[in-house]
Amino acid sequence: MRGYAAIALDHPKFDGNVGGVIRAATVYGAALVAVSGRRYKREATDTMAGHRHFPVLTVDDVFDAIPFDCVPVAVDLVDDAKPLPDYTHPERAFYVFGAEDATLGERILSRCRDRVMVPTVRCMNLAATVNVVLYDRMSK
Fold first, then answer.
1. Which of 38, 85, 94, 104 keeps 20 to 30 A from 18, CA to CA?
2. Is the separation of the CB atoms in 127 and 20 below 8 Å?
3. Is the pLDDT of residue 63 over 80?
């Protein structure tokens, strides 16, 4: 399969979730993880030492890490987001996820071509959401 998935975390709140995201990226073969708002340190939830398999970048702005010709995709519970089951993933995707207790906001949403949401009854944990999005991409 041609293409790749890159993950961006915009100011995540909990270190444990960052480790869980890096583990998900390892399991599903993501190309990189970029994290803004903190300096990453290895977490117990990153049981596979993802930083040894792909770049884990710490950046001031997640868009500083977007690869060339990659489609930015906001994953957020916003009104105009497309439900994930109906979404066709781009060949080269830069999935942007926000903090566990907030939406991405216009600063990020205005820079994303696509907006996607995971239809649930209640909001999901950040690492769980990344797992679902990457699994959906792989399964399609």
1. 85
2. yes
3. yes
Q: State the CATH number of the domain containing residue 103.
A: 3.40.1280.10
For the chain, the distance separating the N- and C-terminal CA atoms, rounded to the nearest angstrom, is: 11
> Contact 95/8 with Cβ under 8 angstroms?
yes
pLDDT of residue 102: 85
Residues counted in the chain:
140
| φ, ψ of residue 132 in degrees (nearest 5) | -65, -45
Average pLDDT in the chain: 91
The total of structural domains in the chain comes to 1
Residue 70 has pLDDT above 70, yes or no: yes
Which of 127, 138, 107 has the alpha carbon at shortest distance from 33?
Answer: 127
* Greatest Cα-to-Cα distance within the chain, rounded to the nearest angstrom: 38
DSSP characters over 95-125: EEE--TTS---HHHHTT-SEEEE---SSPPP
118-133 tens-digit pLDDT: 999 888 899 999 999 9
The residue range of the domain holding 61 is 4-139
